[in-house]
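Study both lines:
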Amino acid sequence: RVTSIADRLNVEFALIHKERKKANEVDRMVLVGDVTDRVAILVDDMADTCGTICHAADKLMSAGATKVYAILTHGIFSGPALSRINNAAFEAVVVTNTIPQEEKMKHCPKIQFIDISMILAEAIRRTHNGESVSYLFSHVPL
């Protein structure tokens, strides 16, 4: 996935390989690639307590990144998540509005959201009418 996104954006990429001992506990993180003097964008499907993503941000900054952003599909943000984000090196943590974020944004100014209601509505409409949903991969409704 990383290679595909980087190719479409015509940018270089690095990745963080994480190994888990058990759920919600990262044993080891290894940065593969060079982020020196670059803006780093962490991409993930969801963040719950944000321990992993904040650890990844620290790793990127210590490896020489100039700024770190996170883009997440689902921001669950439970337990210590907001405190961790506030204290982490993030410029911003951008999530979709699959989960309401207004209250959490009041306590964590780094959180921003992208409204995806139009694309979800179009996907539902296309499914209902038997039309191609994969069309939306290259034609996003605004």
Summary: Residues 1-115 form a domain with the Rossmann fold fold (CATH 3.40.50.2020).
